[in-house]
Amino acid sequence: MPENLLQIGLRIAIVVAIFSFAMTMSAALIWLERRLLALWQDRYGPNRVGPFGLLQVLADMIKIFTKEDWVPPFADKAVFVLAPAVIVFTVLMGFAVIPFGPGIWVVDLNIGLLFFLAMSSLGAYSVVLGGWASNNKYSLLGGLRSAAQMLSYEVFMALSLMGVVALAGSFSLRAIVEAQAGLWYVIPQFLGFIVFLIAGIAETHRLPFDLPEAESELVAGFHSEYSGMKFGMFFVGEYLGIAVVSAMITTLYFGGWHGPFLPGVVWFFIKMMVFLSFFILLRATLPRPRYDQLMAYGWKVMLPLALLNLVVTGALILAFE
Amino acid sequence: MFSILKTIWLVFLHMFHKRVTVQYPEEKQYLAPRFRGRIILSRDPQGEERCVACYLCASVCPVGCISLQATEDENGRRKPEFFRINFSRCIFCGLCEEACPTYAIQLTPDYEMADYKRQNLVYEKEDLTINGPGKYHDHDFYRVSGLAIGGKDKGEAENESPPVDPKGLLPS
Fold first, then answer.
1. pLDDT averaged over chain A?
2. Which of A32, A37, A42, A278 to mutate to test binding with chain B, by most B CBs within 10 Å of its CB?
């Protein structure tokens, strides 16, 4: 019995650790993004509050908590309040299936990958509902764009991952990582990796695919009407989203915790940071495409590429068996 | 496609560029010698106020931030009774300095004037007047002008000939 209790205690400790890791990550990312953007734009970024400006996030948090939390009188109140919670909830659920190291996961589902895809799709509801409930034309346009973007990018996002599943023979993320002990899937699945990377950026509404926000055209898109911590939730959700997508890329294509000398968790973290930085680099570089360009790109280029990848992978697996 | 990758690479290389930010309170930017900042009122070498309250600065000011009232002292020198500059309006164009016939009003390279209250940005004569001659060390308007004031009659200014008696018969 005490052995069992120890097991349960360990599980709870891991859950708490991963949850705090995710939350710290999203806060640290805000700082990292501002500093890196500044670095690539020949500026300094926040460097006044605390060492290297690290406490800037804390200052922002205090500010955002003390702000007036205003619900517009014309908004659909229940949905308006619910929407920001949905995005944080779904993204945190996505963290549950990610294996951070050998034995370090909240749950090892045998359909882990599908669970992640389901959760990231549910996250889209947050944006769409937020845009709808705000009852504001800009918000609605943002929500509309988000819906269209999700529809076109979810399809090939899932398809691009099927190559990995076919190679590993499992939907379980732990099994996929273990199957990469010899060779990281980025080599046999390079096309799939590129497609998933682009879909992942679109999934998290990051630049260059931040059409639902589009500050220059839509004020702030779907969260125009949000203030205080409700806005903060969207913000945290977005950063958690990039973290989870980076973790997924690491898990699926870059061997997860595999790596020499250092412990697995450290390797996972290093790989994840590389992709996080890459997302920020993309933000520093690329302009936002037009709405129709985004759709055309998704359906006419990325979807055929994902299908091609799947067909070729399937054919090769059959040929070598 | 290639151009996108190239752009990403070029932005990445900016990591190794020098940053352009000037870390303001610690580092300060270079100021041009004729930088136009806080306005002052100077005194002549004798320590008297240079301003003769001619209103030219107030008239030329494009935002109308200067207000003053002329008065005259016992020596017949014109002086401002009050002289007020509203620095929350001032655009530091320097036209007042150009217009001033006595070099009284001058712009200095001080720009650190931020304040928490608007009212604190309204500077009175006491706040504006400095204890020195500013940029023109030896200039004394009353000593070079032909105007008679107490202690200096007509013809006693620098480079000034004694007044001609128009009714006299002698050649001047």
1. 85
2. A42
